[in-house]
Automatic annotation (TrEMBL):
It comes from Caenorhabditis nigoni. GO terms for molecular function: phosphoribosylformylglycinamidine synthase activity. Residues 4-116 form the FGAR-AT PurM N-terminal-like domain. Signal peptide: none annotated. InterPro entries: Class_I_gatase-like (IPR029062), FGAR-AT_PurM_N-like (IPR055181), PurM-like_C_dom (IPR010918), PurM-like_C_sf (IPR036676), PurM-like_N_sf (IPR036921). Gene3D superfamilies: 3.40.50.880, PurM-like C-terminal domain, PurM-like, N-terminal domain. It comes from the Eukaryota. PANTHER family: PHOSPHORIBOSYLFORMYLGLYCINAMIDINE SYNTHASE. GO terms for cellular component: cytoplasm. One of its GO terms (biological process) is purine nucleotide biosynthetic process. This is Uncharacterized protein. SMART domains: GATase_5. The gene is Cnig_chr_III.g10099. Residues 150-283 form the PurM-like C-terminal domain. Pfam families: AIRS_C, FGAR-AT_PurM_N-like, GATase_5.
Length: 635
């Protein structure tokens, strides 16, 4: 339940280069696939398996021969690198006749690689960390030494060209060596000041767009300044835009890492560093052979990079939200998390035999279309509960809640949300007399609690388990409407825990923590504006979305924060509410997916990740709410 093993998957495809040379393009597909997989610790390169998918107009003149060349290049490369294809799909009639002309698909190979991942917590992402003393390295491998070929590159396409000489892999053994060295480094750390940091802090393969795109994407993701100085006796355009195989690393111990690569005769250079200047304060300086080629503000370059995404966004996102997102992007610095309470404990007791006979019981309730039940069960188990998987089918068959102290309604899309979020689930409870009575009895007991997340939050609102209890209309007072941005939202962001009556959030007041949001209908709405005022006055608003400074909309004298700090548009940035007695908590974002530090999107930015007691069990502060429920049950 708490293992950190998993699976790693990557893709590789180079259709433009295959237009120039099908054989070379197939080999480049292999290198791209491997270099995308390299950031996850896997068992061994020989354990990597691939699926090969061919899209080709093989019956057209000359295309059959090109396909044979591509297959030959693929087989040669796989033999040299020691991987194998164990399946795939072929579409070899990719041509149609229209208006007397033959329109054919460019010959394309898409490789999908997969392998066992030994530790998901060690996976490296592209975001530069700007760790003090860190350096940025450029490793060029696989291709011919000294060559920077522009054929099939993004730069060529900008000028409506394809080119006539594309990159190739002449030395697959070198790629294997790079893979092996990096896999060793993924499991090593280095002392930075008083804190141990991974030797590999960030990494990105060089592919579409070339070296300059790789460097910029790493800076954009980290939201930090970069200073790059490249020394290479080649034209700067070729250096920056050639899509030759290679990787860029941010490392905490440059001396050791450079020595490791160079001792294997692999070209490795220190080319710069990142600085902890964020957002609008950040700059991008790239110097090549002593000449400053780029000296711009990070946010200006990033807006150029985001342009295509924003154009697509105009067709799927509320335009007001899209404009707000642009402003947030340019203003955002670094999220300042805050946690003043103690949450760590060692959960080894859950493996003791006595635990299974004395621990309070929680029913993890799910319906057709639900998900996240395993994460929810893991969180409650880690906190000390006995957890039981209970489906609504079980309830229909007479399963009773009398023996449980808590119920957890999980997230997902019950009945595919075809009637609206959680309405089908709620109807299944409300219109079945036995099930309805079962839940009513459970809720009326003073020794029970409930927690609903996402779809479960929507369900609790539909059932009236949370809401304005001063409202005398005897109707549901809280609704979860469609996100204001107009689309499903999946993002990780900060929230502020407010002082409230919630038993699960007791002692966590005023903390700023990160949470996953994953919903299309998460906007808290009310039967009347007075309902929200009553909820606030009675301490029933438990969690609010906040920005990177830990501020909510009211701190700026505004109705709510802009998107995406507030991902659904809820007035007053409401993210969770509870019942007036504090026993029932309904939350749209997912604490059940954030109770371990490595589940956080920016886990490297939380200082508790460096605590000694976190070395064996990476509990995040969110475990405190599940543990608080456990302590409440035992009081």
């Amino acid at each position: 339940m708490f293992a950190t093993v998993g699976g790693a998957v990557s893709l590789g495809e180079q259709p433009i280069k295959m237009l120039i040379d099908a054989e070379k393009g197939a080999r480049i597909c292999i290198s791209e696939t491997i270099m995308n997989l390299i950031w996850a610790p896997i068992t061994d390169l020989k354990d990597v398996k691939m699926s090969g998918n061919w899209m080709w107009a093989a019956k057209c003149e000359g295309e059959g021969a090109r396909l044979v060349e591509a297959v030959g290049g693929l087989c040669q490369g796989l033999r040299e690198i020691g991987c194998a294809i164990d399946g795939g799909k072929d579409s070899l009639s990719m041509a149609v006749t229209a208006n007397g002309e033959v329109v054919k698909s460019p010959g394309t190979l898409v490789l999908s690689a997969y392998a066992p991942c030994t530790n998901v917590t060690k996976v490296v992402n592209p975001a530069l960390t700007a760790t003090p003393g860190s350096q940025i390295l450029w490793i060029k491998c696989g291709g011919a030494k000294g060559k920077f070929r522009l054929g099939g590159s993004a730069l060529a396409q900008v000028y409506s060209q394809i080119g006539d000489d594309c990159p190739d892999i002449e030395r697959f053994a070198e790629i294997s060596n790079v893979f092996s060295i990096l896999q060793e480094l993924l499991n090593e750390d280095h002392l930075v000041g008083t804190v141990r940091k991974p030797k590999i802090l960030a990494g990105h393969d060089i592919s579409d767009g070339g070296l300059i795109t790789t460097i910029l994407e790493m800076a954009f993701a980290g939201n930090v300044s970069i200073d790059i100085d490249i020394q290479k006796e080649t034209d700067p355009i070729n250096i920056l835009f050639a899509e030759e195989c290679g990787i860029v690393l941010e490392v905490s111990d440059a001396e050791d890492v450079v020595q490791r690569f160079r001792s294997s005769a692999i070209e490795c250079s220190v080319i710069g560093h990142a600085t902890p200047e964020y957002g609008s304060d950040a700059h991008v300086k790239i110097q090549v052979n002593g000449k400053m080629e780029i000296n711009e503000k990070l946010v200006d370059l990033r807006e150029e990079w985001e342009l295509v995404g924003d154009k697509l966004g105009e067709h799927q996102t509320n335009l007001k939200s899209l404009e707000e997102a642009k402003n947030v992007r340019n203003d955002c610095k670094k999220v300042q998390y805050k946690c003043d309470f103690e949450w760590f404990y060692h959960p080894s007791f859950i493996y003791h035999e006595q635990y299974f006979s004395t621990a309070p019981r929680v029913a993890i309730i799910r319906e057709e279309g639900s998900n996240g039940d395993r994460e929810m069960a893991s969180a409650f188990t880690l906190a000390g509960f006995q957890t039981f998987d209970v489906t609504m089918t079980d309830m229909l068959k007479g399963h009773n809640l009398d023996g449980y102290r808590g119920v957890a309604f999980v997230g997902g899309f019950s009945y595919a949300d075809v009637l609206g979020s959680a309405k089908g689930w709620a109807a299944g409870i409300q219109f079945n007399e036995k099930i309805s009575q079962n839940f009513k009895v459970f809720r009326s007991r003073s020794d029970t609690f409930s927690y609903g997340v996402c779809n479960g939050c929507q369900l609790m609102a539909q059932l009236g388990w949370v809401g304005d209890e001063e409202d005398e209309s005897e109707s549901v007072t809280v609704f979860l409407d469609e996100n204001e941005c107009g689309r499903f939202e999946s993002s990780f962001g900060p929230v502020k825990i407010e002082p409230s009556r919630s038993i699960m959030l007791s002692g966590m007041d005023n903390s700023i923590l990160g949470l996953w949001s994953s919903h299309g209908e998460g906007q808290f709405s009310y039967r009347s504006s007075q309902n929200l005022e009553n909820l606030k006055r009675n301490g029933q608003v438990c969690v609010r979305f906040c920005d990177d400074r830990g501020m909510t909309g009211s701190d700026y004298s505004k109705e709510k924060l802009p998107y995406p700090w507030n991902p659904n548009g809820s007035i007053d940035d409401v993210a969770a509410i509870c019942s007036r007695d504090g026993r029932h908590l309904a939350m749209m974002p997912h604490a059940d997916r954030s109770f371990l530090t490595w589940q956080w999107a920016d886990s490297d930015d939380v200082n508790w990740n460096t605590r000694f007691d976190q070395q064996s069990v990476a509990l995040s502060p969110w475990i405190r709410m599940f543990r608080s429920a456990y302590n409440w049950c035992n009081d």
